[in-house]
Amino acid sequence: MAHRSPTTISAWRPPVPGIAEVFHAHFTDHAYPAHTHDTWDLMILDDGAVDFGLDRRRHGATDLSAVLLLPPGVRHDGRTVTAAGFRKRVLYLDTTVLPEHLIGKAVDAPILADPLLRHRIHRLHAALRHQDEVFEAESRLSFIADRLRFHLEAFRQRTPGREAHRLAVGLRDLLDARVRTGVSLREAAAVFHCDPTHLIRCFTRTYGLPPHAYLTGKRIELARGLLLSGQRPVDVATSVGFHDQAHLNRHFTRHVGITPARYATSEDLSPPRARGRASRPAR
């Protein structure tokens, strides 16, 4: 008799506005009874297939490049299709991310064949693995919401125009002034009276990288100076705006190539400099 892998579940509530819960699971023989959610259920499959009913219609999800979107307040169920079961990652989104007037469109087409959207959701899940990457997660969620609205209401995001440079410079100045304390995407968008995704696009077009990457780079720059002045990595981390030393270590190593602790003592690791003039060869 073939051995079945056990059910595994990981769930948490991230500190990201709009995301009520993150849910990762591997099911082999589980069947969800009919139920409803107060949130949008945004799911991607990593393995296997799912059969589910939504508002008295049954659907089969087998395409790992597709996205499943189940709307709030609508009856649905779900079950495994094969003995191997399925692996899924789910975001439960509140109605600040997607408004309720889109529910009907989602009921009509709950499976979205969109590899780009699927990739964006995957990247957001990766960011959500780290509780301290809130600014990045907010940015990625904003692009996902726009893509979902593209499917549900033919929403078209406007491209950056003549205002792009002005908005980008303004956001850069705000980030420079708030390197240590940080800023939320919603707050920044409110300051400049524009859509969050449009603000990110303007910044990226002007400077070649998204705002969250720019802010991280500025923090690394500050951290390097403080480390070389003799401060401890644990103290440097929070003083430049990182959540803790682990947060600093992760980004510092990716940017610089070594840990903050090794960087602070890198002068001791460098080869000794030659002293005086080299001796002349004998004639």
Task: Note down, in words, how this protein is organized.
- Helix content is 42%, strand content 20%.
- It is built from eleven helices and ten strands.
- It has helices at 103-108, 115-128, 134-153, 164-177, 185-192, 196-207, 211-228, 233-239, 245-256, 260-264, 266-269; strands spanning 8-12, 19-27, 31-35, 40-48, 50-54, 57-61, 67-70, 76-80, 86-93, 111-112.
- Strands 1-2-9-4-7-10 form a six-stranded antiparallel sheet, with helices on one face.
- A hairpin with a 2-residue loop joins strand 5 (50-54) and strand 6 (57-61).
- Helix 4 packs parallel to helix 7.
- The model is unreliable at 274-283 (pLDDT under 50).
Helix and strand layout, with pairings?
Blueprint: E1 8-12, E2 19-27, E3 31-35, E4 40-48, E5 50-54, E6 57-61, E7 67-70, E8 76-80, E9 86-93, H1 103-108, E10 111-112, H2 115-128, H3 134-153, H4 164-177, H5 185-192, H6 196-207, H7 211-228, H8 233-239, H9 245-256, H10 260-264, H11 266-269
Antiparallel strand pairs: 1-2, 2-9, 3-8, 4-7, 4-9, 5-6, 5-8, 7-10
